[in-house]
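Hi, here's the filled form for the chain we discussed.

Project: internal
Contact: R.S.
Residues: 94
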Amino acid sequence: MALARVVTFEGVSKERMEEMDRQMQSGEPPEGFPSSELIALHDPETEKSLVVIIFDNEDDYHAGDEILSAMPAGDTPGQRTSVTKYNVATRMSN
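And the returned structure, exactly as it came back:
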């Protein structure tokens, strides 16, 4: 079963989100990071962001969570306010 790591951030300016997007589009994931899908949502008016990373299984989730939790605060979009693990109940693409 796929699992999602859902992280909320505050204090995320439009400029910071654009910078993060450029870095993620042009860079490589951290060493050892398992295959995943990332979706980043941003509300520039409230400077809040929601990042969803979907992993294929429990082992990948734990490996990814360990790597992401160890990242320096400067490598994140803003101030992390929560990290929650969810089962992916439904997933669709058109």
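Let me know if anything looks off before we file it.
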